[in-house]
Structures are given as C-alpha cells and as structure tokens.
C-alpha cells in the first residue's frame, strides 16, 4: 500500500461532552470532497488520550463507515487509524479492533512517558506487527513522547516486519529525513508530520503529509502536496508561503486546541475540548483569528 498525498489528522468533535458523530461525518465528507488521500481518526489531533476504549473504537468505526459511503471512487480515501499506546498490549488490542472495523492501516506513535530503550521500541512495534495484518505507520514525535524512533531502529523494523511500511516524521529535522531516506528501502514511505516542514521534507524524499492544517484548508493542502509531487516546486512554494503563518499559528498552543478553535469559528464543530486541554488564551485567539480572517477562512 502506498501512502502518497495528503492525509488529514482529524479532530474529534464533541458536543455536551460526548462524541459528536454527525459533525464528524460532515467533516469526513468535506475532506473527501476536497480530494484528500486519506483521513487519520484518533491520532494526537483527535484527542486520543481523553477517549475511553469504546469511544476510540467508535470513532474509527464511524470514520470507516463514512469514508466508504461517501467515496465515489471505490474507497480511494484511506482510513489510517491511530492505535498507538505506551502499553504494548493496549496498542495491539486497539490495532486489532481497527482491523476488524475495516481500517486500511494503523498509525503507531512511539510509547510516551515510560521512555523505552531503542531495543524496547523495536520489540514494541514488532509485537504489534506480529498481531495484525494491517500496514503500519510508525510515528516519531519526540516533542510529545520524550523519545525518538532512531533511524537505525526504523531501518531494522523495515527489514524484519513486512507490514511496517511507513513513518510519520515529526521531529522537526530535514537532516533526519535525509538520513531516513538513505537508510530505508525506496518502498518504505516517509510522511511529513509538520505542516510548516512539508515542502522541505518532500524535497528530501517524503511523499506526503499527515496534516493538521488540512482540517481547515483541505483543498489547499492537497493542491500544495500534489504540486510538489508533480515537480512544480515554485507553485508549491507560493502556497507554502501563503499559508505559512496559519501553519505556525495552529500551534500557538497545544494541538489540537487552535485547530478546533478555528473549526468552531468556521461553524463546523462545537467549541469543545476535553480536560486537561482548555480554550486558548485571549491573546492567542486574537492572533489566530486575524490570520484566519486575512485568508478569508472565517468572518
């Protein structure tokens, strides 16, 4: 399976404290209409740490059902379920549930807080791979997890686990993308995990992005990524610069607080987060709102 293009790390909308299934379905329909290659339910942007297991599985079920029902191109839109955990047993269980729900692949974040060694990371991901037939995407984000999936460990997993086929790279380093591309087989996909770095990452060998910004500008991110894939770096650069301030301001506070705030202002979801996340500061709200208005994304 190829992971080429734009994949939206979807927010999980809440209303009155509960998962808002209707709003979620509408978000997915909009994403498909905008031409995304796939959607990623229950990743970090989907507030996965605050969902119980039943909610987690339900979000994935709705994502799969809605994508299949609304994709006129025979389910071209892939569903990549976030199933990572700092517990190997829990990650295996969540991945198997996603497989039963019909997900196309699973995204596995590095174990957080317990900070395993690289050998522990290898065994963690290998155990998950041995207990599912789904294609698996590693997710290295040391700023969240306190640990990086090393280039050497990634290459080792690629060699020994045939269903570990890609990595979402969110370490903020173009040089690391260079190192990964040099160490991995050409068939192993690299995806940007940072909207502001998608252009340079793809210039160094990434073939797409798992994007936060595409929650609010899906068509534009699809266009930028496709331009890069088509070799039109100048055209892609124009879009990159146009939306660069938005990319930055969507991380003024912890993700997904700003993107959910933006979507609420756009009338697509209710303005709800789950503790310990809370609303943005007034000053940051003013900054984000000004950027969104300048781009004509909200009134």
List keywords for this structure.
14% strand; 299 residues; 10 strands; globular; eight-stranded parallel β-sheet; alpha/beta; 12 helices; two-stranded antiparallel sheet; TIM Barrel
Question: Mind sketching the topology for me?
Answer:
Blueprint: E1 5-9, E2 14-15, E3 18-19, H1 21-33, E4 38-40, H2 53-70, E5 78-82, H3 88-101, E6 105-109, H4 118-130, E7 136-140, H5 142-145, H6 151-160, E8 164-169, H7 174-183, E9 189-192, H8 198-203, E10 208-211, H9 218-229, H10 233-249, H11 257-265, H12 282-294
Parallel strand pairs: 1-4, 1-10, 4-5, 5-6, 6-7, 7-8, 8-9
Antiparallel strand pairs: 2-3
Could you walk me through the main structural features you see in this protein, from its secondary elements to its overall organization?
The protein has 299 residues and is of the alpha/beta class. It has a single domain (5-232), classed as Aldolase class I (TIM Barrel, Alpha-Beta Barrel). It contains twelve helices and ten strands. Strands 9-8-7-6-5-4-1-10 form an eight-stranded parallel beta sheet. Strands 2-3 form a two-stranded antiparallel sheet. Strand 8, helix 7 (174-183) and strand 9 form a beta-alpha-beta unit. Helix 1 crosses helix 2 (53-70) and helix 4 runs parallel beside helix 6. The longest helix has 18 residues, at 53-70. The radius of gyration is 18 Å and the shape is globular. The termini are far apart. The relative contact order is 0.13.
